[in-house]
Amino acid sequence: MIPEHLREAARRAGALPDPALVAECEETFFIASGPGGQHRNKTETGVRLFHRPTGVTVTATERRSQAQNRGAALERLRERLRVLSHRPKVRRPTAPTRGARERRLREKKHKAVRKASRRVGEE
User: Fold this and answer.
1) By Cβ atoms counted within 10 A, which residue in 14, 31, 42, 69 is the most buried?
2) How far is CA 114 from its chain centroid?
3) What is the CA radius of gyration of the chain?
4) CA-CA distance, 30 to 45, in Å (whole number)?
5) 114 φ, ψ to 5°?
6) Are 73 and 60 in contact (CB under 8 A)?
7) What proportion of the chain, given as a percentage, has pLDDT over 90?
8) Model confidence over 38-90: pLDDT tens digits?
């Protein structure tokens, strides 16, 4: 169960423009490993965004450009905030309708008759 204050913070942050959302985040850069050669292995192109109000952390390391990774991280952050702010619909139990009860009982009676007819044949 997600606390309501986190859900509300995520909803509010999701509506912010990009510069304001980045201002709420702690942005760190790191060396991203993987394919890409010397350029990628020597520069801090990986981007990590930590959204302080909600505690959500996202990273992006797939590009050789820090700016492209920042954009990808921001998109991921927006998606995580959207998921966090979603409030599932409340499910209320309902009583079976009269027709459903009658169908269920009719089917049970039918099975009982079939089983009873098998027993009679065995004796």
Assistant:
1) 69
2) 48
3) 28
4) 6
5) -60, -45
6) yes
7) 67
8) 777 788 889 999 999 999 999 999 888 899 999 999 999 999 999 999 988 99
Measured on CA atoms in the order 10, 16, 20, 21, is the torsion positive or negative?
Answer: positive
pLDDT band at 19 (very low <50, low <70, confident <90, very high): very high
Hey, what are 67's tokens?
Answer: 């700016």
3-state secondary structure 39-76: HHHHCCCEEEEEECCCCEEEEECCCCCHHHHHHHHHHH
Q: What are phi and psi of 29, to 5 degrees?
A: -120, 145
CB atoms within 10 A of CB 25: 20
- Determine whether 56 is exposed, middle or buried from the number of CB atoms within 10 Å of its CB (0-12, 13-18, 19+): buried
Nearest to 54 by CA among 77, 87, 27: 77
Starting at the edge strand that comes first in sequence, how are the strands of the sheet with 46-51 ordered?
25-30, 46-51, 56-60
Q: Which domains does the chain have, with CATH numbers?
A: 4-85 (3.30.160.20)
Q: How far is the C-alpha of 40 from the C-alpha of 11, rounded, in Å?
A: 35
